[in-house]
Amino acid sequence: MDNRAGEMQVLVEVADRGSFSAAGRSLRLSPSAVSKMVARIEARLGVRLLVRSTRALVLTPEGEAYVARARIILAGIEEAERQVAGGAAAEPRGRLRVSASVAFGEHYLVPLIPQFLARYPRVSLDLSLTDSVIDLLGERTDLAIRIGPLRDSSLKARRLSESRRVIVGAPAYLERHGVPATPDDLEGHNCLRFNFRRSMDDWPFRDPATGASFTRSVGGNFEGNSGATVRRLALEGLGLARIGAFHIHADIEAGALVPVLEDYNAGDIEQMSAVYVGHAHLDARIRAFVDFLAERIRG
């Protein structure tokens, strides 16, 4: 009988370690045995999964797709065995790879990490903070925290919280340039903007008299891809910024940033969601982390 799970494990190890010999050492197999198992998969599928570069073995597009699915299948097998061996309440364990934006990570995740690891001491947390939207399968990440609209329908999502956006400026900036009374006044202000695709040079507003929504074009001498960077420059008095309230709540409370044009606030809400690859056997450590965040962050 075919040992397809074993073959998958071998191919995943080769992909991770970049050579037959390194994979063999990890699995206690000879390089020739590893090579034969990979060749058996390729023969069965009728496609090439690996090519040799100058320094290492590299996955073909078909290989990348196969390995991504193999990881899910192997994780499902591992979780099934844990559930059977330890019962339905098997203790979460193993490495958990999480990705989040810099702002969300610094303000929400990092303060909660000690509590989570104290509750689940057999979990090892690997946290990466980036404002880029990553490919979970390609980056071998278990789950990501995303803020704003979700586009990848292949991912499962759980809503954690939400935040409105606020236009703010430092007191020193407002003293130098004045406080805008209406959105039309932004033409004379330096507006700090984001440079990623879902951002825009038109900021949304709502007429306080009629409730009608409208936009105004803004400009300035800085664009960035990080909420933490835009916040820092707003605090330094470089210009006005439109930032998620969760990110700057403490700054507003301390008087370091001052909300402006609140009567015209569009009231748009950004959702904060935990996203992960959906399959039948969600690993206990992923479920535990998502449940923990929902418990501690909601609202």
UniProtKB/TrEMBL annotation:
Superkingdom of origin: Bacteria
Entry-linked Pfam families: HTH_1, LysR_substrate
Keyword flag Transcription: yes
Domain HTH lysR-type per the UniProt entry, residue ranges: 1-60
InterPro entries linked to this entry: LysR-type_TF_proteobact-type, LysR_HTH_N, LysR_subst-bd, WH-like_DNA-bd_sf, WH_DNA-bd_sf
Keywords: DNA-binding, Transcription, Transcription regulation
Family: Belongs to the LysR transcriptional regulatory family.
Name this protein carries in UniProt: LysR family transcriptional regulator
Organism annotation: Ancylobacter oerskovii
